[in-house]
Specification:
The protein is an all-alpha fold. The protein is built from two helices and no strands. The protein has helices at 3-137, 142-155.
Length: 156
C-alpha cells in the first residue's frame, strides 16, 4: 500500500468520524452546553433579582423601623402626658380632700367652741345661782358681798 492511499483512507475515516461526531455526538453536547448556559443565565438573573429583592426588603425594614420608632416615641409621649394628667388630677383631688378635711376640722372646732361656751355658760349660771343662794342665805352686808363676789371671780 502506498502512503497516498493510506492518507486517502485516513481522510475518509476522519471525515466519517467528523460526520458521526457532528450527527450523533455534537448535538447532545451542544444542547447540554446550551442548557447549562441557560441555567447559569437563569441563576445569575435569579441572583440579581434576589439582590434587588433583598435591597428592597432592607429598605422596607428600615422604613418600618423608622415608623415603629416614631410610633413608639409618640406612644411614650402620650403615656407621659396621661401620667402627668393623672398626677395633676390626683393632686387636685388631694387638694380638694385636704380642703374638705380642713373645713370639717374648722367646723368641728367651731362646734367644740360652741359646746365649750355653752358648758361655761351653764357653769357660770350654776355659779351665779350658787353665789346668789349664798348671798341670800347670809345677811345683807357689803363686805360679805364683796368677799363672795371675789370668791366667785376666782372660781370663774
Amino acid at each position: 500500500m502506498s502512503i497516498n492511499a493510506t492518507l486517502f483512507v485516513q481522510m475518509i475515516v476522519f471525515a466519517i468520524l467528523v460526520w458521526f461526531t457532528m450527527k450523533f455526538v455534537w448535538p447532545p453536547i451542544a444542547s447540554a452546553l446550551d442548557e447549562r448556559s441557560e441555567k447559569i443565565a437563569h441563576g445569575l438573573a435569579a441572583a440579581e433579582h434576589a439582590k434587588i429583592e433583598l435591597s428592597n426588603a432592607h429598605k422596607e425594614v428600615e422604613l418600618k423601623l423608622a415608623e415603629t420608632r416614631n410610633e413608639s416615641t409618640a406612644l411614650l409621649a402620650d403615656a407621659e402626658r396621661r401620667a402627668q394628667h393623672l398626677i395633676d388630677e390626683a393632686k387636685a383631688h388631694a387638694s380638694e380632700e385636704a380642703k374638705k378635711i380642713v373645713a370639717a376640722a374648722h367646723a368641728e372646732a367651731a362646734q367644740e367652741v360652741v359646746k365649750a361656751r355653752e358648758a361655761l355658760r351653764e357653769q357660770v349660771a350654776a355659779l351665779a345661782v350658787k353665789g346668789a343662794e349664798q348671798i341670800l342665805r347670809k345677811e345683807v352686808n357689803a363686805s360679805v358681798h364683796a368677799d363672795l363676789l371675789g370668791r366667785l371671780k376666782t372660781e370663774l
